[in-house]
Amino acid sequence: RQSFQFHRTSSFGAKTGRVPVGIGRRRLRLVVTGGAGFVGSHLVDKLIDRGDEVIVIDNFFTGRKDNLVHHFRNPRFELIRHDVVEPILLEVDQIYHLACPASPVHYKYNPVKTIKTNVMGTLNMLGLAKRVGAKFLLTSTSEVYGDPLEHPQKETYWGNVNPIGERSCYDEGKRTAETLTMDYHRGAGVEVRIARIFNTYGPRMCLDDGRVVSNFVAQAIRRQPMTVYGDGKQTRSFQYVSDLVDGLVALMEGEHVGPFNLGNPGEFTMLELAEIVKETIDSSATIEFRPNTADDPHMRKPDITKAKELLNWEPKVPLREGLPRMVSDFRNRILNEDEGKGN
Ligand code: NAD
Ligand code: UDP
Ligand code: UDP
């Protein structure tokens, strides 16, 4: 096991006398920061379904109560409006730390706030984990590899990141968050986990968050041209959200610190993605080229050998199966939006 001699385990189950769930495991109390967001809300669904108590901490910058409303009457669920940049006192067994805007449009909106969230927010959650002996999982990102010079990317690659560019608040913020996580592990014996998440899509993504899958799907539904940035030959690998959530839980429950790449190795150019969205939603959909943004990585594809071997995890949902699953959610929300405008 990769933890240090100072390792402590939480004893809140014993203190609170909470009842066991299933056979051989007591009910856990978990925190999900950023739990009102896209990935966080799907993770909360899984953790509540398996019988644990979940406390969500979220400042609703990009998250929505709508994503969690189905849990509001459940006594095992709690929602706290709180900014992770400020300290907080809680008694918990595990912390899934997701709070941070993930879409380039959102994280560039207030770059200093993005850095504060990644650095001070992560520090506070690690301080909390240290105080109560909780396990801590950081959702880092494939962006730590920057515009990669190694392809596909393995966890051993240290990356090619611009420290002073428009994306740096996110890339360097997450790199610092990883550093803090490892320092609390080595220095204070906190039991930690690090996930490096690759592009993920699915229901509940913000409609206008500027990410490529949500943009193309919303544009095709609205019968607008799909906006391809640059020449459209840059590549990404797209993971369906349920695969990611399974990976995060496997990582938290497993014995290994990581970092682990969690992503789907299927690699597509943006032009290929547009073609698949066209086949899925509207065969008459068109594309329109736009200038690309600064420092856009040319290619990205995870090597997931480590997660396969050590977590026994791999994605199950290919892009052509995952895309249709988000379309009805997008259609409903776009319809509601239009009705709200009186259209
Ligand atoms: P999201 O924007 O939908 O969710 C982020 C959540 O964090 C939102 O609910 C937001 O309100 C909350 N938040 C932001 N700043 C906060 C703060 N200071 N205090 C409290 N809450 C705050 O994004 P997501 O796609 O669900 O991403 C979740 C995590 O996964 C992020 O840490 C992101 O960096 C990481 N990640 C996501 C992807 C992806 O493709 N979705 C890829 C790599 C990494
Ligand atoms: N912290 C927190 N909740 C806790 C414990 C700590 O928010 O339950 C914050 C604390 O305010 C500090 C950060 O986590 O800003 C780091 O805490 P740590 O104890 O590691 O460092 P110190 O307080 O000694 O700087
Ligand atoms: N992109 C695009 N059209 C859009 C939005 C994004 O062609 O409407 C491209 C973008 O230039 C990048 C890729 O899609 O090369 C992925 O962008 P996204 O913002 O989804 O995530 P990133 O991987 O850059 O964080």
TrEMBL record:
* Record keyword Coiled coil present: no
Q: Which GO MF term does the entry hold, naming one?
A: UDP-glucuronate decarboxylase activity
Question: How is this protein situated with respect to the membrane?
Answer: Single-pass type II membrane protein
Q: Does the keyword Transmembrane helix apply?
A: yes
Cofactor(s) needed for function: NAD(+)
What does the UniProt entry say about where the protein is found? Golgi apparatus, Golgi stack membrane
| One GO term describing the cellular component | Golgi cisterna membrane
Q: What is its main location?
A: Golgi
Kind of enzyme, top EC level? lyase
Highest taxon, organism lineage: Eukaryota
The protein's Enzyme Commission number: 4.1.1.35
This protein's pathway reads: Nucleotide-sugar biosynthesis; UDP-alpha-D-xylose biosynthesis; UDP-alpha-D-xylose from UDP-alpha-D-glucuronate: step 1/1
Which GO biological process categories is it annotated with? D-xylose metabolic process; UDP-D-xylose biosynthetic process
Q: Which UniProt keywords apply?
A: Decarboxylase, Golgi apparatus, Lyase, Membrane, NAD, Signal, Transmembrane, Transmembrane helix
The NAD(P)-binding domain, residue ranges: 32-326
Q: Which family does it belong to?
A: Belongs to the NAD(P)-dependent epimerase/dehydratase family. UDP-glucuronic acid decarboxylase subfamily.
* Biological role stated in the UniProt entry: Catalyzes the NAD-dependent decarboxylation of UDP-glucuronic acid to UDP-xylose. Necessary for the biosynthesis of the core tetrasaccharide in glycosaminoglycan biosynthesis.
Question: What name has this protein been given in UniProt?
Answer: UDP-glucuronate decarboxylase
Lineage, top ranks: Eukaryota, Viridiplantae, Streptophyta, Embryophyta, Tracheophyta
Q: Which residues of the full protein are shown?
A: 122 to 464 of 464
